[in-house]
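== Item description ==
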Amino acid sequence: PLAPAAAEASLEVIVAQYGGILADSASVLVVCRQWTRGPDGSVAEGGTTVDVRLSRAEPRWAVTELHPGDAGPAAASPPSAVARVLAEPRIELPPEAAADLRSGTVHDSVLEAMLRLAGPYTLSVSVVRTGHPLDVFGTTRPSDHPLGRAFDVWRIDGLAVVDPGTPRQLIESFMRDAAAAGSYNVGGPVALPGVGNRFFTDDTHHDHCHVGFDH
């Protein structure tokens, strides 16, 4: 997807976040926006999210695989909430995530939670369905992302989750509000108490918040 048959192309990496990290292997999700120039001079905007796999090596980690996302074609009649999310200025979606919504494969629970969280926050979404590992990295458990039941947020109110200067109170508040919006599985860089292990933190989620749903 990032090597089109175009005379010119320009690429922006919006964000790179962990899809998973272990002692000797990692998944980094590289969220890209791309512009291509056609023969008539017109410019088209697109992009994808690439699941970059790495293996520990010396003197630096080595890239071993690239898995670009492919959201597929837009649905003829996507859920009505899709248009509301796409039109909401407080929800920032990269190209692959927007294509996921247009494909009609994202559950209403995700769409409604995005809209609810966009009341008190501005959300910069990184990944929704495609471009994410199929299984929770390092396990055989299916991830909620490819099922259209999760989204990741890398920036809240313009502040990066990974930035040590971002107030922990803001991230904690967002995680609690995500749970109140119906998420059964909220991950992030801080540990929060909750009934039924609703909240979690680990090395993978120190740079984003994960909001997952079971339906």
